[in-house]
Amino acid sequence: MSWFANWFDSEYYHTLYKNRDKKEAEFFIQNLVQYLNFQKKRKLLDIACGKGRHATYFNSLGFDVVGIDLSSNSITTAKKYKNETLQFFKHDMREVYQENEFDVVTNLFTSFGYFEKDEDEQKAINAMASNLKEEGLLVIDFMNAKKVITNLVASEQKIIDDITFDINRKIVDQYIIKDIRISDSKIHHHFQEKVKALTLIDFSEFITHARLKIIDIFGNYKLEEFNAQTSDRLILICKK
């Protein structure tokens, strides 16, 4: 089993990241919808949707939303929020979900760069493009890898719900690797996150090969200009 299928389907993953900032996510989406002048009732596909925090907020703003994710546990949780215009399904991002069906496709909060082969990364971007209608928009929200590497915290410990997470980070062959050792009472687990340190140049190649065009690049959730050294995020707006 791939590391991401194993780790993302674990309850420990959701415990470690349960305090992700919901307000920050909503702030980003509000800015995005306003800047791009998205019309309500547009069809939106949220790829690697997790438990649906972005998808549910898009839906609350009037979008007809489908969220897809490889994690069965995440989709089971997300389905608790489903309604006539909000649906969730287990699906691999490398495979086309519905061709030429969506006005907007989103891939948010560094939900990319997981695969061993560049061919799989390209396949995922190609599928995102295929899911879009003509003139549709793809939004990718990734970490700014250069800043992450510069400011890498080698080790830290977090205690959440009486569970101890010992986290060690390192850079190996252009991957940012996070080893996570978990102590839960007398039970011990080890998981790993392994994300490619993809740059704007890398994404530009993937996007060009998928026959999309980058129309905007932002460096944070305020949608300010991207700076490779100082920006917190790499946010790409692409058009089919």
Summarize the topology:
Blueprint: H1 3-8, H2 11-16, H3 22-36, E1 43-47, H4 53-60, E2 64-69, H5 72-78, E3 86-90, E4 102-107, H6 118-131, E5 132-143, H7 145-150, E6 155-160, E7 163-172, E8 175-184, E9 187-196, H8 200-209, E10 213-218, E11 233-239
Parallel strand pairs: 1-2, 1-4, 2-3, 4-5
Antiparallel strand pairs: 5-11, 6-7, 7-8, 8-9, 10-11
What does this structure look like?
- It contains eight helices and eleven strands.
- By secondary structure, the protein is an alpha/beta fold.
- The chain has two domains: 183 residues, 3-Layer(aba) Sandwich (Rossmann fold); 46 residues, no CATH class.
- The strands form two sheets. The protein has a seven-stranded mixed sheet, with helices on both faces. Strands 6-7-8-9 form a four-stranded antiparallel sheet.
- α3 crosses α4.
- The chain starts with a helix and ends with a strand.
- The relative contact order is 0.15.
Query: How many helical stretches?
Result: 8
SSE order, one letter for each helix or strand: HHHEHEHEEHEHEEEEHEE
List how many beta strands DSSP finds.
Answer: 11
Percentage of residues in helical conformation: 25-40%
Coarse structural class: alpha/beta
Quote the average pLDDT.
Answer: 92
Shape summary: globular
Q: Which consecutive residue ranges, at least 5 long each, have pLDDT under 50?
A: none
User: Describe the biggest sheet?
Assistant: 7 strands, mixed
Tell me which CATH architecture of the largest domain applies here: 3-Layer(aba) Sandwich
> How far from one another are the termini?
33 Å
Number of domains: 2
What share of the residues does DSSP label as strand, in percent?
25-35%
CATH fold-type name of the largest domain: Rossmann fold
Radius of gyration: 18 Å
CATH homology superfamily name of the largest domain: Vaccinia Virus protein VP39
